[in-house]
Prior knowledge:
By secondary structure, this protein is α/β, with parallel strands linked by helices.
Amino acid sequence: MLDIPIEESLFICLDTETTGLDPLNGGRICEIAVLSSRGGRRAGSLCTLINPQVVMTPQVINIHGITNEMVAKSPLFEHIAPALIDIINDGVLVCHNADFDISFLKNEFENIGLKMPRRVILDTLKFARCHGNFSKNRLGVIARELGISNEGWHRAAADAIMTEKIFYYFLNKFKYIGAKTIGDLYSLQTKKITQGEFLYE
């Protein structure tokens, strides 16, 4: 997949809201948003609350505003898993702080006896750390400093939209210096490349 041209790639921006900070200590997903696009055009989307089957604490609720009452009648993860697999199966996953979201997703799939599809993962947090100059590398701060609305920060849909817009900001920047493939983007998560360097590979 790393040799696929950027123009042909389906990018899937994903965000989760959770009941805690660690899936290995009982944290579960309580909301998920997935936005897929190719060439900047919307290809698909999924956004839903999820019944985490655990009680959320006031401290957690204060972060994202999702209450126990809001998720009580929402679908379980196993009910949305097939649609989620359909969306992410053919594309490149894009998250902000991917280690967090992906660890929760893998755990949710394992809880229902499935393995999360193996995909290339791009992380806008890594892009920001390596190629940005923001006052902080938090999602809402980056969005604000790029002139992107951060209204609704800490809800999955709003965060997925911000992630997508930030990703395309970096994508345009990287294409300008010669990035052509998913492999080029993958390498840019950890190293700085100057304009024209890709042209000599």
